Amino acid sequence: MQMDNEYHKEVMDIVYLLEIYLKRPVGTGEFQTILNWVENYHMSLDLIQYLIELSFKKEKANIKYMDAIAKNWYLADLKTVEEAKKYSKIRDTIIFPIKNAMQIYARDLIKPEIEIIEEWARKYEFSTEIYEEACKRTIKSTGKPTFKYTDKILNNWKRAGVKNLGDIEKLDDAYNYNNKQYTSKLKNVPEKKKNKFHNFNEREYTSEQMNELEKKLLGF
């Protein structure tokens, strides 16, 4: 019973907090949403409080918006306020733009994908525009959001010392120039003299002759 009392108090604390922000009583549907956060998403009181504060800070004070964020946090396996703050910062600056650049519209990013993006942020420290450019090139080349392919692009740019989009343009120009030079060299290579084999006139066989040759080769 003690656990039930604690659970009831926790839920009512959340309801009271939300009513303060909304400046009105919480409706039945909103109350059910709060229960879902606690029972199914296993969100702590501190995490829900941060969720409510964050929503009002962004001037999106409605339960549907809060519930969408809560779902994202649950899918990302976020348990603490610190994890949520870190996720929110990366999401606003990198994750959401990458999601769009990868043309992932019908679903949320899953935890492994988010972890890859977080690793990019730590490893490469590129601007959002560079991540977006790498994602666009991935879609253009593979036709799908292949994070491993994007990582190869980013790794090559990091090794090349890329700092901005202008550096990428220079790399593209150098690549195109080298390709033109190589193609030009191939065109200027003198044609080799034909040997006796090249001068050999290929004999044409009828279907019957081909069948006979096949039989001989097979030992018939």
UniProtKB/TrEMBL annotation:
Name of one Pfam family that matches: DnaB_2
Organism field: Pseudobutyrivibrio ruminis
Family: Belongs to the DnaB/DnaD family.
InterPro entries registered for this protein in UniProt: DnaB/C_C, DnaD, DnaD-like_sf
PANTHER family: DNA REPLICATION PROTEIN, PHAGE REPLICATION PROTEIN-RELATED
Residue intervals of the DnaB/C C-terminal domain: 17-88, 103-170
NCBIfam families from the UniProt entry: DnaD_dom
Protein name according to UniProt: DnaD domain protein
